Amino acid sequence: MRIAITREVSPTFANCELTHLERQPIDIDMARDQHRRYEEALWSLGCELRTLPAEPELPDAVFVEDTAIVLDDIAVMTRPGAASRQPETSTVAAALEPYRLLLRLEPPATMDGGDVLRIGRTLFVGRTQRTNQAGIEQLRAMLAPYEYTVTAVAVKGCLHLKSGVTLVAPDTLLLNSRWVDPRPFGARQLIEVAGTEPGAANGLLVGDVLMYPTNYPATRRRLEERTVQVRLVDVSEIQKAEGAVTCCSLVFDT
Questions:
Q1: Contact 150, 139 (CB under 8 A)
Q2: Neighbour order of strands in the sheet with 250-253
Q3: What is the domain range of residue 137?
Q4: What share of the chain is helix, strand, coil (3-state, %, to 5)?
Q5: Are 81 and 111 in contact (CB under 8 A)?
Q6: CATH number of the domain that residue 177 is part of
Q7: Chain segment 102-132, per-residue pLDDT in tens
Q8: How far apart are alpha carbons 182 and 190 in whole angstroms?
Q9: What is the number of structural domains in the chain?
Q10: Spatial contact of 179 and 158, defined as CB atoms under 8 Å apart
């Protein structure tokens, strides 16, 4: 069974943390509608939804990806880099507990799940304002007994590693090389985002289908030319909060 943990949009979503974007008005009703359609897309791709209630005191809590790293046999509860977001982990931990043994990062580590890209038994972890060296070192030591490798990746100009690179097909990455150094990924195939669409590197691979935002048509054509099967979702209001398609779910197999 494939599970997708999601969380409803907070009524205070417009008060979200921002690092690289100017604050814009967010239509909460539209954000909720887009989120429902996002969940419908996950369901249509074979996911069983576990939707958590909104957290009125936690504006960013819809971005459940940042709270945990779910692997085959364990899950690591992160320690988000924005202090206001650290309380988000408790309810996600409760949702994950029936499925995985839980490990936890401890201070002084900080890490957002959006900085972690898993490819096989390797976890690529971005060094960003949200994820520090202590977090990377703790994760490396924590996962070594489970035979996972942790590789640090330099990131600049964007919030998270997965703002600039995601897995879009087996051994194929979609990348903005101005934001993320491609060298740590070795000989894997790379698809560069269109120059006019710097934010276009974030896609969510569910099975063989890539969930992908509607507002990057030039990059979408590059994906389709490489035979990537794309399922479009509109997340325009969520993007105003520095979110994207990976941020709003934790997808894993039981």
A1: yes
A2: 47-52, 2-7, 250-253
A3: 2-253
A4: 30, 30, 40
A5: yes
A6: 3.75.10.10
A7: 999 999 999 999 999 999 999 999 999 999 9
A8: 8
A9: 1
A10: yes
Q: Which residues of the chain have pLDDT under 70?
A: none
How far is the C-alpha of 26 from the C-alpha of 23, rounded, in Å?
9
Residue from 139, 83, 73 nearest 106 by CA: 139
Cβ–Cβ < 8 Å for 123, 205: no
What pLDDT does 177 receive?
98
108: preceding bond cis by omega (within 30 degrees) = yes
Phi and psi, residue 233, nearest 5°: -135, 140
Residues tagged active-site:
160, 247
Contact between residue 91 and residue 45 where contact means Cβ atoms under 8 Å apart: no
- The closest of 40, 28, 3, 11 to 233, measured between CA atoms, is 40
pLDDT at 66: 98
